Amino acid sequence: MSGLGFSTRQLHAGERYDGPHAPRATPIHLSAGFVFDDFDQAHARFAGTDEGFSYTRVGNPTNAAAERRIADLESGSAALLVGSGQAAVATTILALVSTGDHVLSSSSIYEGTRELLRDDLARLGVTVDFVADPNDLAAWERGIRPDTRVVFAESIPNPKNDVLDVAALARLTRRHAIPFVVDNTLATPYLLRPLEDGADIVVHSASKFLAGHGTVLGGVIVDGGTFPWAAHADAYPQIARTPGPDGLTFAERSPHTAFLDFARRVAMRYGPVPSPLNAFLILQGIETLSLRVQRQSDSALHLARWLEGHPQVESVDYSGLPSSPHHAVARRYLTRGFGAVLAVTVRGGVDGARAFTNALRVFTRMTHLGDVRSLVLHPATTTHVLRDADELAAAGIHPGLLRLSIGLEDLDDLVADLDRALGEVAGVAGASSAPAEVPVVEAVSPRRLLAV
Ligand SMILES: *Cc1c(COP(=O)(O)O)cnc(C)c1O
Prior knowledge:
Elements lengths: L5 H7 L26 H9 L13 H13 L4 E5 L2 H12 L5 E5 L4 H13 L3 E5 L5 H7 L4 E7 L11 H11 L3 E4 L4 H4 L9 E5 L13 E5 L13 H4 L9 H4 L4 H13 L5 H11 L2 H20 L4 E5 L9 H7 L7 E6 L2 H11 L4 E2 L9 E3 L11 H6 L6 E5 L5 H21 L14 H5 L2
Parallel strand pairs: 2-3, 2-4, 4-5, 5-6, 10-11
Antiparallel strand pairs: 1-7, 6-7, 8-9, 9-12, 11-12
Helix pairs in contact: 1-3, 3-12, 4-11, 13-17, 15-17
């Protein structure tokens, strides 16, 4: 829907009134499969000569409506909805690498993704290197090898808010002809569209801002449609060399959606399919995306400024603050707002963080973000618990650092809640001058290893 504004498209892009009743809202097609009119239509659906649906793992009209809308909002050629953000990342990487290949990633990324790249790809014979500073172009250049098949980064990493210079990294990956994948979860297409700045593929955890209400998990992969697969058939034979039953490769059949078509096949085989009910809830969330993200970003900026001036606060990581080393890059990319997630390091180390967290009443203690409710989490003892002290320090995750995801509550109530909690910090921070260490993890439960 080119030519229309973002808010109009978040309501209308990709809509189709299917069936005899023409319902205004997208129906939830909660059906495992779809009826074939006759013998020949069944064959045509499987042979791919008839576009209709056959089985929900392969495609579903509700999921397809969400895919069309997200592809439009991200300025992509096509999208694929999967069961979670992790499924989107895993499917994307699995579609691009083969045994012996190399992946180069920013180390400032979602911890679940970092663990997947570091621990699980190795088992498949794929090597991964990490670049410590996402905007150190010389380090990216040094890290690229002849067998590098993916460059991966996040547009707004958390908790440090070290905003990515997407266009600069895209120029480098173009020069080396390597697909550049950006996780755009925290920015959302409302704040930033990496494909417009030269990225090749965008992934999201739709569980966060897209769905927005903390009710469902989902993930999405968006193809920019611009990577020249056919010119790099040696590197990506699965997309540009191996012919399908019709004698054509994915790249020949449809050059602008070749990656997405292949990723759809990977997802079909590995099976991380989302429920159509979840697709509906994601679609409904997207209808108010711009309103929520604008308000949440505005509140986050206000709170970041207020926190920075508070005596019980050591530092605030938020790219909207002039004190942030990432402010200049953020101002170039995030013209509508700097996002809803910030980190605050309170005085008193881990004891200060505990007192602060336990005193909050409006903020919810929870591992999630992008919810309509405000959330708080202590990364060092939760999401990043498998990192040792040196790794935490290198990532700037201090013992007193808390991640805040700002919701839609009244700003005055959020300020009052934070102010009261910081009052509790004063009690413990005064007692010890040196910041307390993060407690050493004695044992990691299997549950924790399974569910990051
Ligand atoms: C949450 C998150 C993921 C993982 O998404 P799930 O839907 O929880 O699987 C990936 N990347 C980022 C940046 C995230 O915040």
